Amino acid sequence: MIAYVRGVLSTIQDESVIIDVNGIGYEVICPNPYRFQAHMDEEVFVHTYYYVREDAHILYGFQTNDEKHLFTKLISVSGIGPKSALGILSAVDVSAFVAAVEREDEKYLVQFPGIGKKTARQIILDLKGKLDSALSITAAKPEKLTEASYLDDALEALKALGFSDKEIKNIIPELQKEDKQNTDQLIRTALSLLQKT
């Protein structure tokens, strides 16, 4: 399982990005590749899901772990393949989608390409009550998001990348000076700081 790819963003295509990792270009299919436009020729960190079937091995990529989690849950639903799941993720806020599933809002779900009433009902049946607890940003409690929440998310991501508590603790004072409303930006700043130590 390839959990993430970290490397230099070298190319953006209609359905994918290519990330150069030590001279090897990984093509990663994304919900909306142009979200990465601001980071051309810079180091990026992309959460990935390695999808294997008889005729293809495909790497799907996401900006956040929540997007990746929702993707894996969606493709477990009968009638939804990776293409439909990407279509949903390219057009939706994760927390809004989770909220729609929890309130059994079929009208919201059928607005996505390839999702009819039958599939919408299947999504609700299979996923209701199973999304909130695993997401770091839940639809049920958006008002509780604080600067500390974004910073905590960034620190957890650094631990997942294998950095020690001591290394992370050393850069916290610098991170606290940054805009703490954007987890992805905090992670990028942290990686830059850690490379200098």
Automatic annotation (TrEMBL):
Keywords from the UniProt entry: ATP-binding, Cytoplasm, DNA damage, DNA recombination, DNA repair, DNA-binding, Helicase, Hydrolase, Nucleotide-binding
Keyword Cytoplasm annotated: yes
Compartments it resides in: Cytoplasm
GO molecular function, one term: four-way junction helicase activity
Pfam families: HHH_5, RuvA_C, RuvA_N
Sequence ranges assigned to domain Helix-hairpin-helix DNA-binding motif class in this UniProt record: 72-91, 107-126
NCBIfam families assigned: ruvA
Domain comment, as recorded: Has three domains with a flexible linker between the domains II and III and assumes an 'L' shape. Domain III is highly mobile and contacts RuvB.
Function description: The RuvA-RuvB-RuvC complex processes Holliday junction (HJ) DNA during genetic recombination and DNA repair, while the RuvA-RuvB complex plays an important role in the rescue of blocked DNA replication forks via replication fork reversal (RFR). RuvA specifically binds to HJ cruciform DNA, conferring on it an open structure. The RuvB hexamer acts as an ATP-dependent pump, pulling dsDNA into and through the RuvAB complex. HJ branch migration allows RuvC to scan DNA until it finds its consensus sequence, where it cleaves and resolves the cruciform DNA.
Protein name: Holliday junction branch migration complex subunit RuvA
GN (gene name): ruvA
